[in-house]
Design a protein that fits this description.
single chain, alpha/beta, Nucleotidyltransferase, domain 5, 2 domains, 44% helix
């Protein structure tokens, strides 16, 4: 079973919670989807609502994740014969883990795999790749299959675009190779943010080595691929 997953949350801090979950399941025997709003006891801040358009009124009477149909579906297929496929899967698994769910199956991270296989992309957000790779050409037909609204930051819509991205990547590498790449660090050559945005890390290692050393020591939330890349240059 392939499980394309996306979550929306009340924010990205450690105290934040899941507020919606979108799942598309495909196998040789069947294909189906599930979308649910859930209430994990955390108030929806306006900042989060402005992104995912989910309000406190919408989740007020919704079940906890453990009491949802989506939870039961994930538990039913929580085995080595199933693969969760998500864009930045570590975030989704971390959020599920905070609610008590521990995934036992295989994993494909379309974000990391895309960075490996199509490094020339300017950005790697799901919405950017939707247009850059022309995934939108098949989205309306696919949306009808799964009763999905094509809205950015809607969990089912994003799960759908993750599926389309996976199928695009599957034309480059086989499934097992995509799974393997999901656990391999991406070598990043340029900074994408900060005072050295757009400049090569190798260049900065020669002219401002102390800055890179400071990042490794002080930036606790540093992206693991960037940490890996800086360490290689040092």
């Amino acid at each position: 079973m392939l499980i394309f997953l996306d979550l929306e949350t009340t924010g990205v801090e450690s105290s934040d919670k899941i507020c919606s979950i979108g799942i598309i399941c495909t196998s040789k025997e069947s294909t189906f989807s599930k979308y649910e709003l859930v209430n994990e006891g955390k108030k929806m801040p306006s900042k989060a609502s402005s992104i995912n358009h989910i309000t406190n009124e919408m989740i007020k009477d919704r079940p906890k994740l453990k009491d949802s149909e989506a939870w039961a579906l994930l538990q039913e297929h929580n085995n080595q014969d199933s693969t969760i496929i998500a864009h930045n899967v570590n975030f989704d698994l971390k959020m599920l883990g905070q609610s008590g769910f521990v995934w036992q199956g295989q994993i494909v991270d379309t974000l990391r795999v895309t960075k490996h296989l199509i490094p020339e992309c300017e950005e790697f957000s799901l919405q950017f790749l939707r247009y850059e790779l022309k995934l939108y050409k098949d989205e309306k037909k696919e949306a009808l299959k799964y009763n999905a609204e094509l809205l950015p930051h809607n969990a089912l819509s994003d799960a759908l675009h993750t599926k389309l991205l996976y199928e695009y990547l599957l034309e480059i590498k086989e499934h097992n190779e995509l799974a393997s790449l999901s656990f391999q660090n991406v070598f990043i050559e340029k900074f994408g943010f900060g005072k050295y945005s757009g400049r090569y890390i190798e260049e900065i290692s020669m002219c401002d080595r102390g800055y890179l050393e400071w990042m490794l020591l002080q930036a606790k939330d540093l992206d693991e691929d960037l940490r890996y890349s800086i360490s290689r240059f040092l």
